[in-house]
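W.,

You were right to be curious about this one. When I first looked at the sequence I had no strong expectations either way, so I just let the prediction run and decided to look at it fresh. Below is the sequence, 140 residues in total, followed by the output.
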Amino acid sequence: MRPARFQQLLLDAAAALPGAAAKTFADAGGSKQPFGVVVEAGGRSTRWQIVVMSAPGEKWGDHPDPEPALGEKPVGPAMPAELNDLAAVEHGLVAALLAADAGEIAAVEVYSARPNPPVVGHGATVDLHDGSRMFINHVR
């Protein structure tokens, strides 16, 4: 999956978040990161950068986005009732993404749920059935 298609999937999924609005980094006034979404919820704005690791052997450039590889959908976090803090927005984004997914997502690891979260602190690693990986990182 290419970054632009994943960004659209995440943006569409964010529309299901209770009391939230979302837009791309570009629609929010530009960014040095080319792909990501801004979520307005709970009286705050959070920015979620998208980074992609392509599937082994996948060619970019003028090649079209490959056909989706579908499989079993993983279980993820429940949709929070309120998006009142950063972890709730993180969990809400992942829950909405999994609900919107047609079966391309093979696994999701939510950063704040790890025993030792990475430096980023909030976000998720999304593994797809085609072998590619998507990283959703909270950025300031």
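Here's what jumped out at me. The helical segments are 3-14, 86-100. And, maybe more interesting for your project: The chain has a mean pLDDT of 88.

Coffee later to discuss?

I.
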